[in-house]
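Troubleshooting: if your tokenizer reports a length mismatch, compare your output against this known-good record of 394 residues.
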Amino acid sequence: MNKSIVLALSVCLCSLSVIAQTNDIDKVLREIEQNNKSLQTHAALIESKRLELKAGNNLPDPQATAYYLPFGTHTSGDYTEFQISQSFEFPSVYAVRKGLIEQQVEALKLEYAVLRQELLLPAKQHCLELIYLNKKIAVEQLRVQQANQVFEQIRELFEKEQVGILELNKAKIAWMQEQFTIQQIENDKHNLLLLLQKLNGGNEVLFDQSSYSGSLNSYSLDSIWQDKKTNDPAVKILERKQEVALQQIKLSKNKALPNLTAGFNHQGVSGETFSGFYGGLSIPLWNNRNKIKAARSQYRYQQTFTDAYVLEIYSNFQKQFNEYQLLLGKFKEYQSTLSGLHSDALLLEAYQLGEISFIEYYTELQFYRQAFNTLLQMEKELNQLIAELLKHQL
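Known-good structure output:
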């Protein structure tokens, strides 16, 4: 076999962890964040809910009433009255409710962040799959060259009547199978790009990165978890909901204070007029009954739910991290074993010397190729596991 092909395969094997010069994945994710229809729709929904929440802290409309009473059995002049009034809750209620609304708006923003990550993670996984397919194409193109070279050598031997037609047909089929493999990979790439295009709001995605960015080296479980607890919107939204529940208690307490009414009144009868201000307040006996207890109960529920959910997240995180460590160890063993092998060259040499038949050569070659395919597959899975572990950083 041509030594350049052996060298190229070796270089491909040794470059599994090379860092890309430019991280095209980040560019794709930024485009998707900008163009994704679900994110655009949710952003509009959040703005609508924000305005609705703010409207809930408005004062009620002022009221104006007027009386003109010309009928009846009175001897004095007609009676007229005009009144304008404004009702409102106790002033501290508006301040507390404003704080509650701010917490609720922050929770809405975190809901958007959660949805954003739920969309960007599969997009990143698709990009990592495309890198894997690009690596496979590079390998398969070398294998096609190798299969073609073997086929040409056997055809020369066939023309010299040193091998039979069956040997020639097997070599040709092996060459054709390698060509078909490339076509299948290209089709898989096309389908993945269509999925990315859908996430990108129907806009075409250009992505041809052929190496992974970042490192596969072992990460620390504790450091990732602490970072996740601090920055993961799925965790932060629970903390925010606790703040909302706590603010709801404060609001319920303040709503136990009386509502107020203030206004201006003007009355006229028998040519005389009377004008002045008036005020009133409600007597808070029944309207707020049990609301403070209900708010406290909701707060306790939210605390318990947050603790349980964080434990569930941590449990799933530990499982993912254990899978990552197990796969990383297996990957390193494969990489160490295969990096020093030149089995394809040795097999071809044995075949050319007549030590093994073509079918033996091809069978053994497939064994080593499958091992290399497994190495590429593990590398992809490792990168995808890391993407899941670091999902909170998207």
